[in-house]
Design goal:
By secondary structure, this protein is of the alpha/beta class. The protein has two domains: 193 residues, 2-enoyl-CoA Hydratase, Chain A, domain 1 (Alpha-Beta Complex); 47 residues, Lyase 2-enoyl-coa Hydratase, Chain  A, domain 2, CATH 1.10.12. The protein contains twelve helices and ten strands. The strands form two sheets. The chain has a six-stranded mixed β-sheet with strand order 1-2-3-5-7-10, with helices on both faces. A four-stranded mixed β-sheet has the order 4-6-8-9. It is globular, with a radius of gyration of 19 Å. The model has no long low-confidence stretch (mean pLDDT 96). Bound molecules: octanoyl-coenzyme A. Octanoyl-coenzyme A binds next to helix 2, strand 6 and helix 5.
Length: 256
């Protein structure tokens, strides 16, 4: 069985399912390689405009594979490109929606945070428990988490390894919305479909601009945002979107 399954339910949406249920979808080297390949392919797939990533009902991802990591040394980590998958996800200009049921721990919480929107089931649990196995977060758990929830909640999660439930995660700003567990994937696909109907050039520019907020001082970020905004006035979709509004009809976006 592959460690991941790629599905294309149509309407511009791709669904990447993590498929190691027997190991709570722990991320091993095989899964990393498959995820990297999927994201490289999805970036250039013109039929895909939004991506949903999900696990199963018990776990989104239980973390990096501890059995596999247990015998690795620092040189292994440096020589195997462990970060390839994170770079592939980070370089993906299309919106990524994490549909989280069950555990999102360690690398799993980091994978959710590398996405753009997180839909969580009421039973979802998030955590950065790496210290409990003698390490620390290595793929965004001290950086993206701190930016999402602030220093004091991040410190609590990273230094104690305690898990937080979906309601608490929502209150902290760690997830976008919470729905019934059985509705998580459907809701994520619904959001992806809605995004896929919108003008893709505007979506890509908007995503890039929001992500830039993490890396730029406000003045530079506002200038960056304005350039993206101005650039979109050179697209056919801007003309069509505004014309359709004024003519009181549904726009037909072409991605040009
Ligand atoms: N790695 C390997 N195997 C795992 C992992 C994991 N992270 N999580 C669960 N499994 C396996 C278990 O060993 C068990 O296998 P078996 O049936 O053969 O004994 C099976 O999955 C089911 O697990 P449980 O019986 O424990 O299932 P529960 O539902 O009772 O508990 C938990 C699920 C809460 C997820 C529990 O298994 C657990 O605490 N797992 C470990 C969580 C953890 O510590 N995660 C952090 C790992 S370190 C990390 O992620 C570092 C990231 C660094 C950079 C990013 C790289 C991708």
């Amino acid at each position: 069985m592959p460690a991941t399954i790629l599905e294309k339910p149509g309407h511009g949406v791709a669904v990447v399912r993590l498929n190691r249920p027997e190991a709570r979808n722990a991320i091993n080297l095989e899964m990393r390689a498959e995820l990297t390949a999927h994201f490289h392919a999805l970036v250039v797939d013109a039929d895909v405009r939004a991506i949903v990533i999900t696990g199963d009902e018990k776990a989104f991802v239980g973390g990096a594979d501890i059995a596999e990591m247990s015998t690795m040394d620092a040189a292994d980590h440096l020589s195997i490109d462990m970060m390839n998958v994170w770079n592939a996800i980070r370089a993906c200009p299309k919106p990524i929606i994490a549909a989280v049921q069950g555990y999102a721990l360690g690398g799993g919480c980091e994978l959710a945070m590398a996405s753009d929107i997180i839909v969580a089931g009421v039973g979802a649990r998030f955590g950065q428990p790496e210290v409990r196995v003698g390490i620390m977060p290595g793929a965004g758990g001290t950086q993206r988490l701190t930016r999402a929830v602030g220093k004091f909640q991040a410190m609590r999660m990273v230094l104690t390894g305690e898990l937080v439930g979906a309601a608490e995660a929502l209150g902290m700003g760690l997830v976008s919305e919470v729905v019934a567990d059985a509705e998580v994937v459907g809701r994520a696909i619904e959001i992806a479909r809605r995004i896929a109907e919108l003008p893709p050039l505007a979506i890509v520019q908007a995503k890039e601009s929001v992500l830039a907020a993490d890396n730029m001082p406000l003045d530079a970020g506002l200038r960056y945002e304005r350039k993206g905004y101005q650039l979109l006035f050179s697209t056919d979709d801007q003309k069509e979107g505004m014309k359709a509004f004024l003519e009181k009809r549904t726009p037909r976006f072409k991605g040009k």
